[in-house]
Structure prediction request, 478 residues.
Amino acid sequence: MFDCNMLKKIKMSLKYFIFILIFNFLFTSVIYAEFYTFEDSGWSSCRGESWMLDNSEGYSNNNSIKSGKIIGVGESSICRNVLGPATIDFCWKCKNGRLLFLVDGKIKYECNSEDWSPRSYLIREDKFHTIEWRFWKIDVSVEDGAGWIDDVCIKKSMLEPETQIVAGNEIQIVVGNEKQCSNKYSNKTTYVDKSNSNDQKYIYDTITEAIRHVDSGGTVKVAPGEYPEEISIYKPLYLLSMNIENTYLGNDNGESIISIYSNDVAIDGFIMSGADSGIYIINGTNCTLSRNKIQRCGIGINVLYGSNCKIFDNNILDCTTGASINGLNCEIYGNTISKSVYGLRSITYNSKIVDNHLSSCILGVTIKDSLDTRITSCDFTDIRTGGIHLDNSSNCTLNENLIEMELNDNFGIYFNNSNNNIISRNIIRNSNDGITFGPFCSGNIIEPNNIIENIQMCDIFFQDRNAYHLSSVKDRFK
Prediction:
């Protein structure tokens, strides 16, 4: 007896074989349109309608993949497994909804723009991870909501042979760490010269274009000149000024002169002014900012949810806030901050603020909602209202700082709702109160401090003395 199910399977196999022949002949440079071929190349549907080829939209040409059609509200996502460590470069856009990039189910980036933009994410752990692009349509009144991705490039430092790791509008097999995913990211170093020099190595007129073409983890070298750009960085790279005396960035009407949306970014040696923020790091890890001069900004350096960032040898002046640091394991050292309302505002955990110089500020350093933060060997001169203010912070150390107030004004160090901190060997001059403890403070240890010259009220003031049964005041050091 003839097996009807077997006949159906044979017909399906023939259709599949014919389709592959035709497709490979006509569309060898684009990602496959049908869902089962996504499975063949390591892709799968995580939820909702399957993604498909779109021949009308693309970052580098007219090809990309698009989320499945959603009726009403709902989600459509595409996934694959990646063995770390690896760098994922991609471009994306969305319309009438939210497009998310997730690693192991956790949101890393979000896209709300109808314009194409590149992104890059570094996976560090040496194990298998699930990466996912998820479009979420949230407005039932619109019909054409969708998300697009293009030029997806997954690069590993070490690969097993014959492993396919690239998908985008060009299907490739990459083995080892020597080949590049795409010629779009094939440059380890790009150059920028605003003056259009005849030197052939200076390829681009704008920093934005040079960043777009540099390889993830590469270097962008910038020649002297003025670059009035709003710069966004979505991949690991090193942005280097070739002359720190006269390489200018400016963006008077923008939110930020440089916005960093990636890990492992370094910015070195630029002069910048204007904008709400000079340099803005959003959720970045292992970023380094050094030797930059930032002036006349709302916030000179703004770090939001950063970790393991290093900020050193920067000169920040005439800003409302010199630096605002919200992060974990950050190191801020050797910076000069002057003529600002707030010198440094920080919400940090296990971070170090060392050897910084603050002058002519209304308020020197404010530490809020912080834990295990250390302020050491910082100089505060001509501070008007207060040198160091700890608010709702614990287990912090204030050690060997010099605080010189402007004309006997206000407090040297002030604590509010802060516990188990150590204050030792600080020099405080020209303040009304040397060290002030507001309400709800306990367990703070005051070791030898040298509070000298023109203290108007008292050396150490306890507002709520019942909160200090664990505190101790020892002899001052000479």
Observations:
- The longest helix spans residues 4-26.
- The first strand starts at residue 43 and ends at 48.
- The chain has three helices and 45 strands.
